[in-house]
Write a structure and sequence with these properties.
Blueprint: E1 5-7, H1 17-21, H2 24-36, H3 50-53, H4 56-72, E2 75-79, H5 86-95, H6 105-108, E3 112-116, H7 122-132, E4 137-143, H8 149-173, E5 175-179, H9 185-193, E6 196-199, H10 213-221, H11 226-242, H12 250-263, E7 268-273, H13 279-293, E8 301-306, H14 315-320, E9 325-332, H15 359-376, E10 381-386, H16 391-412, H17 423-432, H18 439-448
Parallel strand pairs: 2-3, 2-4, 4-5, 5-6, 7-8, 7-9, 9-10
Antiparallel strand pairs: 1-10
Helix pairs in contact: 2-16, 4-10, 5-10, 5-13, 11-16, 12-16, 13-16, 17-18
The protein binds 5-phosphoarabinonic acid.
5-phosphoarabinonic acid is lined by residues 81-84, 143-145, 148, 151, 205-207, 291, 419.
Length: 449
């Protein structure tokens, strides 16, 4: 395997190497704690060995379900939010044609995968039902807890529509539920209605669940190779288990550098890519780091940008604003396709100096130029390089970021696997909507509004 590379040399203008290496002993302990399940949140470490322990049988079962969905549906609606949404969206966007919705099913060789229940916007869901009205569609409803309001509302709409169109029996053929093996309203409903189901291991938290059926089923339906995705993750799992030393293990190095920068007052990390297809990988990373580390009054705020687009909106702030940020770039060595910039006889736009060059070269020079400009502007930069955007390297990135997040969270001193703060908005919303049991809170909230 060629592991992803991490280059931290451009942080050394801001840090001494000993600021980073001082974390090694602690990182060794955190690797041990993850291996022996002795650290904070150790009930939620099922993700650590997922790539190497996922069975052939499970992958085959997911692929068979995906083939069945590909046959019956032109559109596959994935209902979920947070960790039950972002991983699948990240991979499908990263590997699909940029204008995939405009292609036919034959051109795509798979149904169009779209998402619902990741918001509670009436317009979004009304538009969704319009689009589905004359299409053959199927649904995966994904919720670890099986009780999350956003996907539950979207699923109710879709379930009723499918039952109206195809009857109970026909709808059953078009619905797959992915949820906890035993608990939650969704598990109960799936059992009662007789849906095909996949289980999310109880010891894998939502934001660490992309390599379970949560991510694998939608990715397989979209026509992508889940075995390659798992192979990339597995190689990173084995590599990061073998070495704890930050000179050999990019996971250790990333965790150490971001904590060293945090101690120097850099409490915002900007994750930048130069490829629009990676936008949702960045969104997935934001949830992973935001929800895992942002607690106990600590946080490195994860912010995402897509360059060069956002250099024309955020570039000024990054270059010259408050110096409390550092930047991590996901750099892609090679694109899948080439676009050569043509010569123009008149050269009215003065672009002939670029004629004959691949657009990717221009993008690369923008990347290098931006890196140097941002360093000049006192923004430490880390670069994570992958050879190309493929299932295999996205698998590596997933596992790399997950393990680094766990270690980084342990260095920060938090439990990276809980999310107690997420409940606050939910209880207020339930009270304001009149859910039974929230009457007292509802009175207090109404007075404050
Ligand atoms: O990381 C988490 O656990 C959460 O953000 C969940 O992913 C999100 O709330 C969705 O939860 P569920 O899958 O239970 O519907």
């Amino acid at each position: 395997m060629e592991p992803l590379k991490i280059d931290i040399s451009k942080t050394l203008e801001f840090l001494l190497y000993k600021d980073i290496s001082r974390y090694q002993a602690e990182i060794d302990q955190h690797h041990e704690a993850l291996r022996n399940r002795t650290g904070k949140g150790s009930d939620f470490l099922g993700w650590v060995n997922l790539p190497s322990s996922t069975s052939e049988d499970l992958l085959s079962e997911i692929e068979a379900a995906a083939r069945r969905m590909q046959e019956i549906a032109d559109i596959f609606v994935v209902v979920g939010i947070g960790g039950s949404y972002l991983g699948a969206k990240a991979v499908i966007d990263a590997l699909s044609h940029h204008f995939s919705p405009l292609l036919s099913k034959e051109q795509r060789k798979a149904p169009l995968v779209i998402f619902a229940g990741q918001n509670i916007c009436a317009d979004y869901h009304a538009d969704l039902m319009d689009i589905l009205a004359d299409k053959s569609y199927a649904v995966a409803v994904i919720s670890k807890s099986g009780t999350t309001t956003e996907p539950a509302i979207a699923f109710r709409l879709l379930k009723q529509d499918l039952e109206k169109r195809y009857g109970k029996e026909g709808a059953r053929e078009r619905i797959i539920a992915v949820t906890d093996p035993e608990s939650g309203a969704l598990r109960k409903m799936a059992t009662q209605e007789g849906y095909q189901t996949f289980s999310i291991p109880p010891d894998v938290g939502g934001r660490f669940s992309v390599l379970t059926p949560v991510g694998l089923l939608p990715i397989a339906v979209a026509g992508f190779d889940i075995r390659q995705l798992m192979a990339g993750a597995r190689d990173m799992e084995l590599h990061s288990q073998k070495y704890s030393d930050m000179n050999q293990n990019p996971v250790s190095l990333y965790a150490a550098v971001r904590n060293a920068l945090y101690r120097r007052g850099k409490n915002i990390e900007i994750l930048a890519t130069y490829h629009p297809r990676l936008q949702y990988l960045v969104e997935w990373w934001k949830q992973l780091y935001g929800e895992s580390e942002g607690k106990d009054l600590k946080a490195i705020l994860p912010v995402g940008v897509g360059f060069t687009t956002d250099l024309h909106s955020m570039g000024q702030l990054i270059q010259d604003g408050e110096r409390n940020l550092f930047e991590t770039v996901i750099s892609v060595a090679k694109t899948r396709r080439q676009v050569i910039i043509p010569t123009d006889a008149e050269d009215l736009d003065k672009l002939n100096y670029l004629a004959g060059k691949d657009m990717h070269t221009v993008n690369k020079m923008a990347e290098k130029g931006t890196l140097l400009a941002h360093i000049e502007g006192n923004v430490p930069n880390l670069v994570i390089e992958i050879p190309t955007i493929s299932e295999y390297y996205i698998g590596q990135l997933f596992y790399f970021f997950e393990k680094a997040c766990a270690i980084s969270g342990y260095i920060l001193g938090v439990n990276p696997f809980d999310q107690p703060g997420v409940e606050a908005y939910k209880v207020n919303m339930f009270a304001l909507l009149g859910k039974a049991g929230y009457e007292e809170l509802a009175k207090t909230l109404r007075e404050r509004l």
